[in-house]
Amino acid sequence: MENNRYKILVADDEPDILEFIEYNLKKEGYKVILATNGQEAIEKSRKEKPDLVLLDVMMPVLDGIETCKLMRTIPELKQIFIVFLTARSEEYSELAGFSAGADDYIAKPIKPRVLLSRINAIIRRKEKDKADEHLVVGNLVIDRESFLVYRGQEKIQLARKEFELLFLLAGKPGKVFTREAILEKIWGQDVLVVDRTIDVHIRKIREKLGEEYISTVKGVGYKFEI
After folding, report:
1. Does residue 187 sit in the same domain as residue 217?
2. Is there a single domain that holds both residue 163 and residue 212?
3. Residue 208's domain is classified under what CATH number?
């Protein structure tokens, strides 16, 4: 994997952290763009089209949560990977981040090996996602290339994690996926995610597609029904 093909935008209002992350990412071969607040992050993302955005949660002008929400409404930024950087470990903050459309979550103080491991894994996933994959399940066409779901003539847009979760479940209709399996396959072993995060994403998928596609297996997990 040639990292110099990938651009990463880092938004944080602390100069020391920006310098620290920039140094480690450049040493790994990534191109780095810096921003000091959420508004600047959006403006530079629209101009530079980074492959990945690292957002501090607590920033002036626009905080990370609001910045992420806005990015997900801008067509050319919708599919950018967004990772939050935060010193806040409260459950509500984590849930708010994923609900806003974040793909991952890295806690401060940042450890270089953890940061690079997580980013390299995301970039590998991005390369894999370029494959033209789609599923036809029942009356749904789930297109992995465009991150769209088609139901007849209706086109349904899902957030990235919602899409990945649906793609996982729909890939094996009738199979019950445990919560542990879902967390590992969608968020990875190195990411600390609470169980309620899965529930939030399932609820959002049901709101967009309807209740009939995903069933809850009480005390175990979820399965896709045709």
Report:
1. yes
2. yes
3. 1.10.10.10
Taking a C-beta distance cutoff of 8 angstroms, is the pair 97, 105 a contact? yes
| Same-domain pairing of 148 and 114 | no
Q: What is the pLDDT of residues 121-135, one digit of tens each?
A: 888 776 665 554 678
pTM of the model: 0.62
Residue 72 domain boundaries: 3-129
Work out how many domains the chain is built from and give that number: 2
Whether 153 and 121 share a structural domain: no
Do 166 and 122 belong together in one domain? no
Please give the average pLDDT of every successive group of 10 residues along the chain, which has 226 residues.
82 95 95 97 96 92 92 87 78 67 84 89 71 77 86 89 93 92 81 77 94 93 92
